[in-house]
Amino acid sequence: MSQQFRMADRIIRVAEPGQLADTLNVWGDVGSSGRYLVPRNTSLPELISYAFGPQTISDDQTRLDWSKLRVEVNISEYNDVTGMEEVQNFRYRFNEPLPDGMREFDLKNNQVVALQVKRRPSFVDYVRVVAPVLSSIATGFLIIERLR
Fold first, then answer.
1. What is the pTM of this model?
2. Pairwise CA distance, residues 36 & 33, whole Å
3. What are phi and psi of 64, to 5 degrees?
4. What is the rounded distance in angstroms from the CA atom of residue 62 to the CA atom of residue 146?
5. Enclosing H/E stretch for 140
6. Taking the chain (148 residues) in consecutive chunks of 10 residues, what is each chunk's mean pLDDT?
7. Please, which residues bridge with residue 76 across strands?
8. What is d(CA 42, CA 104) in angstroms, rounded to the nearest whole number?
């Protein structure tokens, strides 16, 4: 099941006027993606909370088991010295504690924080892929038998 990766929707100001602040981009599978103006020393979990936390595309046909969902958080920034993009990532499951270093990660100005929620396929997902193929094959055999 593919998911649509959302880019920024708006600019959100969390920092108070006159407060030292960092500007960070939050993209992906969050409740409210956008460019965030947050107080200095904001932690990564706080930033994700400001963006209304990880979200996933769900439909009425599938009840999501949150214990099977994985969250991947990628923080990227451009390094002026090397001219390369540096990426730090954290992966965790909803039913596990946050990974080491995620709470203490030092967010900096102009970093991009991208969240992606991944779900392990269930039996129903496999049936949705295999059933139409089997149905087409069976229909083809029936048509060939009728034509003979």
1. 0.69
2. 9
3. -75, 135
4. 38
5. helix 123-147
6. 49 80 89 89 91 72 67 87 83 87 90 87 81 92 91
7. 87, 112
8. 10
Tell how far CA 147 is from the center of its chain.
51
Query: Which pLDDT does position 87 carry in this prediction?
Result: 87
The H or E element spanning position 147 is helix 123-147
pLDDT at 2: 38
Report how far residue 133's alpha carbon sits from residue 131's, in angstroms, rounded to the nearest whole number.
5
Domains and CATH numbers, the chain: 10-120 (3.10.20)
Nearest residue to 49 (alpha-carbon basis) of 69, 73, 68, 85: 73
> Rounded to 10 degrees, what is the CA torsion of 136, 142, 146, 148?
90
**Neighbouring residues of 124: CB distance < 8 A, sequence distance ≥ 6:** 61, 62
Strand partners, 69: 119
